[in-house]
Specification:
This protein is of the alpha/beta class and 281 residues long. The chain has one domain: 3-Layer(aba) Sandwich (Rossmann fold), CATH 3.40.50. The chain contains nine helices and ten strands. It has helices at residues 2-21, 23-27, 86-94, 116-132, 147-159, 188-195, 201-204, 235-244, 267-278; strands spanning 29-30, 46-51, 57-63, 71-75, 79-80, 98-101, 140-145, 178-182, 222-227, 249-254. The strands form two sheets. The chain has an eight-stranded mixed beta sheet, with helices on both faces. Helix 5 links the parallel strand 7 and strand 8.
């Protein structure tokens, strides 16, 4: 019996160790195949480049806003790359909003390897581009899809005065116009624990994206949209995040929707109305 117990413990240790060592391969699923803006259905967008604080040059897509309209900064999820999100930002371009489709390191031919600190650096580079275009933070709509929700919350937190290095306060860049979160997690640790309940996944993740600890500091209108049948990130996580957010806030829990098909349920119309009601023209 002691031998069997030792074997079981050994197998369990190997499983836990393997999950720890391979965790970033399990989190990030980049595609290097990039369509052009025209092929993605957003021919008015341009492929541009920006430089990160740690010396990487990233490709992203951008189309400026019509006069008086805000700019949607879209942080996509963990799979594919920005070129697969053309259909998702099409409604925002049609509404007259500017759109910046953020490019991540390690995705779509960009150099580097993705990580939490890396994606935050990538996001800051894109926001710095907007500042250089004389687009103020109050005109930014930070949009986070799935994993990108962690990036969007961090950027909103930093703009509200949160320390980029997870401290309490830093120099604020000014409040953003609004924060939109599609299928968000409360933290990546919570999401990992739900997928791997047989290991202490919450404590093993190196990339934490602890949105629930930050969102109460975001001083901008918040919209959360989440499918009630989401099998990747439970709607309960979105609800926990929503409860932690400040007012004004709004949520839509979409009956029948899963993780990747929210736009089949008219979510883009909800987002457009929210942006129009909650940002300066």
């Amino acid at each position: 019996m002691l031998n069997l117990a030792a074997v079981a413990i050994g197998v369990y240790a190997v499983i836990v160790g393997g999950l720890f060592l391979l965790q970033r391969q399990l989190i990030y699923y980049p595609s290097q195949s990039m369509a052009s803006p025209a092929q993605a259905g957003v021919s008015e967008m341009q492929a541009l480049r920006t430089n990160t604080e740690d010396g990487l040059t990233l490709t992203f897509w951008y189309a400026p806003a019509k006069a008086g309209q805000p700019t949607v900064v879209y942080f996509h999820g963990n799979g594919g790359n920005l070129s697969g999100r053309g259909f998702k930002v099409r409604p925002y371009l049609d509404a007259g909003f500017g759109v910046l489709l953020a490019g991540y390191r390690g995705y779509g031919g960009n150099p580097g390897k993705p990580s939490e600190t890396g994606l935050y650096a990538d996001a800051r580079a894109h926001l710095e581009f907007l500042k250089n275009q004389k687009i103020s933070p109050k005109q930014w709509i930070l949009y986070g899809e799935s994993l990108g929700s962690g990036v969007a919350v961090q950027m909103a937190y930093e703009q509200a005065g949160g320390d980029p290095n997870q401290g309490t306060q830093a120099a604020a860049g000014g409040p953003i116009g609004a924060l939109v979160l599609e299928s968000p997690f409360s933290s990546l640790g919570d999401a990992a624990q739900s997928h791997y309940p047989f290991v202490p996944a919450r404590f093993l993740v190196r990339d934490r994206y602890d949105s629930v600890a930050k969102i109460e500091h975001v001083n901008a209108p918040v919209l959360v949209v989440h499918g009630e049948e989401d099998g990747v990130i439970s709607a309960n996580q979105g609800k926990r995040l929503f409860q932690a957010a400040r007012e004004p806030k709004q949520a839509h829990w979409i009956a029948g929707a899963g993780h990747n098909n929210l736009y089949d349920y008219g979510v883009s119309d909800l987002v457009v109305v929210f942006i129009q009601k909650n940002t300066l023209k």
